[in-house]
């Protein structure tokens, strides 16, 4: 469905991605794992067209999409739930949902309507007139996901959706993600919650310092303690920082 080939991305003069190769098949759930600063968000932003690779290319359903603008990439069927959620705090829940379809009308089939979103996310239905700013963190995250669904993606990119959420909300998030997959949507998950990753994903990629350092099936990854210890557990510096907080 999608393939990244030797993708190099920069923030101005800083070379961040050093030749990323990654592929996703239709219907898969694939994770992109790695410590803070590994380059996960940069990879997702590059797929979405928010950064243009200086080298390499991204192919989606047989078409080169690298170099295209974010709105063009969205119209091709890729949606993004950003790490910072980026919901509109002054708009209501309903307005936040509707805005996701602005500029998409020619590409929409009517699979996702506000009514259907409210069936899937009853909590958002209860809060439909509330402004984004007045939602809890969990509700904001659900809204960010719901908004992405409104653009009717074939591929959904989720960046650290579980971050900062209470365990019960993480459980709901996991359930929602399963339902999204059951709808036939392919998912690329950037996640720190390894339990959620192994519960949901078919395959995992691990990044370190802007490179893919591991790729394996869920079974292989679960059995590979070495890769988890080496690339995914907290570094001693991070542990010290967390202890000080
Ligand atoms: N806007 C930016 N400008 C310059 N450097 C950035 C910017 N955003 C991220 N970086 C750097 O790029 C690297 C990868 O960051 P990022 O992709 O956000 O990592 P991750 O999502 O894996 O935590 C880090 O070294 C980070 O400091
Ligand atoms: Mg990130």
How is the largest sheet built, in terms of strand order? Answer: 6-7-8-3-9-10
Query: Which blocks of ≥5 consecutive residues have pLDDT under 50?
Result: none
Question: What ligand species are in this complex?
Answer: adenosine-5'-diphosphate, magnesium ion
Q: Please count the helical segments.
A: 11
Task: Kindly estimate the percentage of residues that lie in beta strands according to DSSP.
Answer: 15-25%
User: How far from one another are the termini?
Assistant: 42 Å
CA radius of gyration: 18 Å
Mean pLDDT figure: 93
- How many strands appear in the DSSP assignment? 10
Shape: globular
Largest sheet: 6 strands, mixed
Share of helical residues: 25-40%
Task: Give the SSE order as H and E letters.
Answer: EEEHEEHEHHHHEHEHEEHHH
Structure classification: alpha/beta
Quick take:
The chain is α/β, with parallel strands linked by helices. About 40% of the residues lie in helices and about 25% in strands. The radius of gyration is 18 Å and the shape is globular.
Can you offer a commentary on this structure?
- The chain has 11 helices and 10 strands.
- The protein has helices at residues 40-47, 70-75, 93-99, 114-120, 122-126, 137-150, 167-182, 194-200, 218-223, 225-231, 236-244; strands at residues 2-11, 14-24, 29-33, 55-60, 63-64, 78-81, 155-159, 186-190, 203-208, 211-217.
- The chain has a 6-stranded mixed beta sheet, sandwiched between helices.
- A hairpin with a 2-residue loop joins β1 (2-11) and β2 (14-24).
- 37% of the residues are buried.
- The model has no long low-confidence stretch (mean pLDDT 93).
- The structure holds adenosine-5'-diphosphate and magnesium ion.
- Adenosine-5'-diphosphate binds next to β2 and α1.
- Residues 40-41, 83, 159-160 line the site of magnesium ion.
């Amino acid at each position: 469905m999608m393939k990244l080939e030797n993708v190099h991305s920069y923030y101005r003069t800083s070379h961040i991605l050093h030749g990323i190769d990654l592929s996703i098949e239709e219907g898969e759930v694939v994770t992109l794992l790695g410590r803070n600063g590994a380059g996960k968000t940069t990879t997702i932003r590059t797929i979405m067209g928010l950064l243009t690779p200086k080298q390499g290319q991204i192919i989606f359903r047989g078409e080169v999409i690298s170099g295209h603008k974010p709105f063009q990439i969205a119209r091709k069927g890729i949606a993004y739930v950003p790490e910072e959620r980026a919901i509109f705090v002054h708009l209501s829940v309903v307005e936040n949902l509707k805005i996701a379809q602005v500029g998409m009308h020619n590409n929409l089939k009517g699979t996702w309507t506000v009514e259907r979103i409210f069936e899937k996310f009853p909590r958002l239905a209860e809060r439909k007139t509330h402004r984004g700013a007045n939602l809890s963190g969990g509700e904001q995250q659900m809204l960010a996901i719901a908004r992405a669904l409104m653009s009717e993606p074939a591929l959904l990119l989720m960046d650290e959706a579980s971050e900062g959420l209470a365990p019960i909300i993480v459980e709901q998030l996991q359930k929602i993600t399963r339902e999204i997959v059951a709808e036939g949507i392919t998912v690329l998950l950037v996640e720190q919650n390894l339990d959620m990753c192994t519960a949901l994903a078919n395959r995992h990629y691990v990044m370190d310092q802007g490179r893919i350092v591991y790729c394996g099936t869920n079974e292989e990854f679960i059995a590979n303690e070495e890769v988890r210890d080496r690339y995914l557990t907290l570094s001693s510096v991070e542990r010290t920082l967390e202890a000080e907080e």
